[in-house]
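Lecture notes, unit on protein representations.

Consider one protein chain, 283 amino acids long.
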Amino acid sequence: MTNRDSWDAAARARVSDRWTSHSADWNTSLTDALLAAAKLSPGLVVLDLAAGSGDPALSIAGRLSDGRVIAVDSSQTGLLLANSHAQQLGLGSRIECLQADAQAIPIAPNCVDRVTCRFGIMFFRDVARAMSEIMRVLKPGGRVAFLAWGSFDQPFFEATVGVVRRMVPGAEVPAEAQKMFRFAAPGSLDHELRAAGFSEVHEQTLTLPRIWAGTPEELWLYHQEVSTLCQPLFASIPPALSGEIDAKVSSALARFEKGGVLRVPVNVIIVAGTKALSRRFIG
């Protein structure tokens, strides 16, 4: 399965009717933190990179009463789903979907007020080039905000992928999936923004709750469907161990259950910065 196929499969899984009610708030706290860092306000033009199937681009469009969102992703499948959901939500006039690479953003210079990216920057092939493109399209005084995964050593991954690694001899997280943790080291994402010329850069590490309105067993199934980059790891589970692993993962996730929902803590990195005003804007 190619990376493009993986992202297409993940996009379809995330919007599957099978998981709609269970996953309604799975990313809410993450999106709220990202958009708080972006400092949204009415009338802005926001570029959301690695937009997938429209989350958080649709959330951004819903908060901008008279603004506009440009959702960019390499997956046409995801963008078609995003556009369909935008129409269903009455947000079609506020969102534009573009299939493109973050290293070559097909929009004019100095035309967006904000750039956001949730769980995408870790997978950019050339981060320096992507940062250069972001700087190019961002207006002077504009702001960027990125959200990336913290360390693998955190409760959610230890309770899921970690169980598989411990129980299956020789099992390892695939190289592509390991890129999720590319900016887990404190200061590494901060460094990329400063190197690109952004100012007022601020990085923070947060522990946020992911809310799953279903059972531990259902969350484990959902995670296996959505985490397409980990499919080689899941495929390595011997049939003889499958039931035992499912039981151990469900037990590990069950400790986060309270009041009929799971509140799973996750550790993330958020960094934001601004594009300096040019001389002609300063006066």
